Amino acid sequence: MAFVSNERCVIVRNATLTPEETQVDKIYTVDASVFLNAFNPYEVGHEVSHKLLAELQSRSIPIVVPTLLLPETAAAIGRGRQDTQLAQQFVSALSRLPHLIFIPMDIKLAQQAADIAAQYRLRGSDAVYATVAQRFGSTLITLDRQQRERVAPVISTRYPAEVQIDA
């Protein structure tokens, strides 16, 4: 098992990360929109998203994401490219990235996401990413303007081009 999670702690490959130990801008939650943008060289902003994800990976900066990332990206690639194998390969590669910390959707996360969805008028998947960011005190990186603006009062949010990684 790559990780074990509960609301207080995530254990990843023998490293423990608690929400209290994290600082905003030192840990990130990256929305599926950014991963998909980095994957597609024909999309506007592709280079910025790709560079950001590569930089986070090269520096082993933790990215905390819901397990929802996997089916969400598989669906977008499978449907958009009409290529099941490519979608499965992309998800397989994502699931093996050592700096990604996958947070499973349990009932508590689902209830918190439902509250955030209702309060900030978000789509369900957007609320799940916002909930993970809120739980871990991470900065939410997204290309979704509505998601970014609506949760900005309670969660640190950035577009990929706004993220500055200290040397």
Describe this structure in words.
This protein is of the alpha/beta class and about 170 residues long. Helix content is about 50%, strand content about 15%. The chain has helices spanning about 30-40, 45-60, 70-80, 85-95, 105-120, 125-135, 145-150; strands spanning about 5, 10, 15, 30, 65, 100-105, 140, 155-160. It has a 3-stranded antiparallel sheet, with no helix packed on it. The longest helix is centred in the C-terminal third of the chain and has 14 residues, at about 105-120. The protein is globular, with a radius of gyration of 15 Å.
Concise summary:
This protein has 167 residues and is α/β, with parallel strands linked by helices.
The CATH first-level class comes to: Alpha Beta
State the domain count: 1
Structural class: alpha/beta
Reported for the largest beta sheet, the result is: 3 strands, antiparallel
CATH architecture: 3-Layer(aba) Sandwich
Q: Can you give the helix content as a percent range?
A: 40-55%
- List the total number of helices: 7
Basic shape: globular
The rounded Rg comes to 15 Å
Biggest sheet, spatial arrangement of strands:
1-2-3
List keywords for this structure.
167 residues, alpha/beta, Rossmann fold, 7 helices, 8 strands, 48% helix
